[in-house]
Design goal:
Blueprint: H1 8-37, H2 51-75, H3 81-105
Length: about 110
């Protein structure tokens, strides 16, 4: 898409794809730090406080999820109106499912 796409929509799609990639990398690093810092069999006494890491990981993961969905929704508009509507509707459904899952977990 990036080689042939032009215009504002392609720019936004590429921007959101980049944002999701960066956010997912941060989420992976944060979750790895939590996993390494708190093994399941380790005693809880003296365990490091990883609250800030958890918040950063969760925020980065959420940004990554929603950014990639926005990127997917925008990507079709660089091809045609029909493809744009299709990708936007599918991404919108993805946002609804992800949001309902996140609310259900939280």
């Amino acid at each position: 898409m990036a080689l042939r796409a032009k215009g504002r929509t392609a720019t936004w799609a590429i921007g959101f794809a980049t944002a999701s990639s960066v956010a997912f990398i941060i989420a992976v690093v944060g979750s790895t730090a939590i996993t390494a810092g708190l093994p399941p069999d380790a005693p809880r006494v003296g365990a490091p406080d990883l609250g800030g890491t958890r918040v950063a990981m969760t925020l980065a993961f959420a940004i990554g999820l929603y950014s990639i969905l926005v990127s997917l929704g925008l990507s079709g508009w660089s091809r045609s109106r029909r493809v744009g509507w299709t990708t936007s509707i599918l991404a919108g459904l993805g946002v609804l499912v992800v949001t309902s899952l996140v609310i259900g977990i939280g």
